[in-house]
Amino acid sequence: MIPDQEGPATHSAADKFDDEHYPAYTMGRAADMLGTTQGFLRSLDEAGLITPQRSAGGHRRYSRHQLRLAARVRELVDQGTPIDAACRIITLEDELHEAQRLNQTQRRDSESDTLD
């Protein structure tokens, strides 16, 4: 599962616009935006790729970050990739991106240590 980073417990109204992890979209709106079905989004939850937050009433709420992941899965599925394989590909891509980011950070830190 790709964790959806959680920000501070309280958000100002302005922060919500910029926070890509803020769960702003209902399942219906998310499905409309992606041109897919609510069932497709449920299947991503069942596959463990995306775990949407829940509203007080128990309804799924999706963030922009989660919608980008869902859109990428949708592209792969539309190309004929089985949904489980598409979810695994997205997970591996995310892990690779995170490893590259950490490597770059460590390299930068190492370079700054040698300059000191």
Topology:
Blueprint lengths: L12 H6 L6 E2 H8 L3 H9 L6 E2 L5 E3 L1 H15 L4 H33 L1
Antiparallel strand pairs: 1-3, 2-3
Would you mind describing this structure in some detail?
This protein is mainly alpha-helical. 61% of the residues lie in helices and 6% in strands. The chain has helices spanning 13-18, 27-34, 38-46, 64-78, 83-115, and strands spanning 25-26, 53-54, 60-62. It has a 3-stranded antiparallel sheet with strand order 1-3-2. Helix 4 packs across helix 5. The longest helix is centred in the C-terminal third of the chain and has 33 residues, at 83-115. 18% of the residues are buried. Keywords: DNA-binding. This is MerR family transcriptional regulator. Residues 24-92 form the HTH merR-type domain.
Quick tags:
single chain, 116 residues, mainly alpha, Multidrug-efflux Transporter Regulator, Chain: A, Domain 2, 3-stranded antiparallel β-sheet, 5 helices, flat
Question: Over the alpha carbons, how many angstroms does the gyration radius reach?
Answer: 17 Å
How many domains make up the coordinates? 1
Into which percent range does the helicity of residues fall? Answer: 55-70%
What best-fitting shape do the alpha-carbon axes yield? Answer: flat
Distance between the termini: 40 Å
Strand-residue fraction? Answer: 5-15%
CATH architecture identity: Orthogonal Bundle
What sequence of helices (H) and strands (E) makes up the elements? HEHHEEHH
Q: What is the CATH domain class?
A: Mainly Alpha
- Give start-end ranges of low-pLDDT stretches: none
Largest sheet: 3 strands, antiparallel
Mean pLDDT across all residues, rounded? 88
Based on helices, strands and strand pairing, what is the structural class? Answer: mainly alpha
Briefly note the CATH topology name: Multidrug-efflux Transporter Regulator, Chain: A, Domain 2
Number of DSSP strand runs: 3
Domain HTH merR-type: 24-92
Keywords: DNA-binding
InterPro entries: DNA-bd_dom_put_sf, MerR-type_HTH_dom, MerR_fam
GO molecular function, one term: DNA binding
